[in-house]
Amino acid sequence: MPAPRPFTVAVPDAVLTDLRERLARARFPDEPPGAGWQFGSELGYVKALTTYWRERYDWRRWEAELNRFRQFTAPVAGIDVHFIHEEGRGPKPMPLLLSHGWPASVWEFHSILPMLTDPARFGGDPKDAFTVVAPSLPGYGFSFAPGQPRFGVPEIADVFGSLMTDTLGYARYGAQGGDWGAAASTQLAMLAPERLVGIHLNFVLAGPPQDGSDPFEGVTPEERAALAATEGFESEETGYQRIQGTRPQTLAYGLNDSPAGLAGWIVEKFRAWSDCKGHVESRFTKDELLTHITIYWVTQTINSSTRLYCETMRGGRWGMTQHCVTVPTGCAIFPGEMIQPPRRWAERYYPIRRWTRMASGGHFAALEEPDALVDEIRAFFRELR
């Protein structure tokens, strides 16, 4: 395989100037009196966020932070995959594949990467060190070129497996992810179980048994309450899935042309899916939100990223895995997560070695609760080294 090529993020000045000009010309819709967030992103908040984006947000600062990490691209499966590759600092670092989801980006891991690679620096045990490979999903961020093939989850798992083994030469490694990253980690565990030490998930998809047995046998009252919340998510929060899963191209014309539209579309998910109790900036700063949004804007990847939903739905692969995983699995269940299946359901698909109900945090665990997530990852893989 061709050797990885060093990569540095360097957005042209003209792209940033164009962004500010578009923000200055933003044409906002009206809003019914007292609407708040019940119909989508609140008008007042989107105006405040986009004003900050235009007047105060400094992309160059966060670009420089991203460039502190060792970044590369490598040709895999006909595309150039972008990835961070940070060497661990310890006696025997374990290779670990970190996979993000939508609408996040590889920037989601900026806080946990140093903790995973250099635990001693943060008061941890050097024996827990990982060498981390964190790719941008194909079609996301810097893993994109116009017109490139669109992949579903199985194809992404193929890409990541080839990257880890064929390109980087890791014979065995661990995998961790949430959202689409959890799906890719699961697929990878089924694709190449002999390569996986184990997988750790902070997003678990598992449905009730279909064999006629009582679906609530062994389900705790706490888990029943979480299932009730899941029903609310399915009825109120899945419209984006239908749009992105059926007509992503139509959606893209607006979001790729209007930064205000892109911000409104993405920030609503950070609010709805996090453990923020309705106050999005209690979990994320404006700069954190806008760094993710800006990555989508400057790479023009909102279309290619949402296409993953379409590939999944049209391929009939939506939902939990249809096959059993055989590699050791750890799960961190955050209380603000959109879907929280009971452990009994998950055990039908995964050999659960560690199942932890977390004290706080939601869908964006690496951003919301970085210390707690890192502790869980370390604890799970510690027994598998």
Shape: globular
Mean pLDDT across the residues is 94
Q: Gyration radius, to the nearest Å?
A: 20 Å
In percent, how helical is the residue content? 40-55%
Share of residues in strands: 5-15%
Number of strands: 9
Distance between the termini: 28 Å
Structure classification: alpha/beta
Q: What's the helix count? A: 15
Main beta sheet: 9 strands, mixed
Query: H/E series, N to C?
Result: EHHHEEEHEHEHEHHHHHHEHEHH
* Strand order in the largest sheet: 1-2-3-5-4-6-7-8-9
Q: Low-confidence parts lasting 5 or more residues at pLDDT below 50?
A: none
What do you see in this structure?
The chain is of the alpha/beta class and 385 residues long. The chain is built from 15 helices and 9 strands. A 9-stranded mixed sheet has the order 1-2-3-5-4-6-7-8-9, with helices on both faces. Helix 5 (153-167) crosses helix 6 (180-191), helix 8 (239-246) packs across helix 12 (302-314) and helix 9 crosses helix 10 (259-273). The mean pLDDT is 94.
In short, what is this structure?
This protein is α/β, with parallel strands linked by helices and 385 residues long.
Name its key features:
alpha/beta; 15 helices; 9 strands; globular
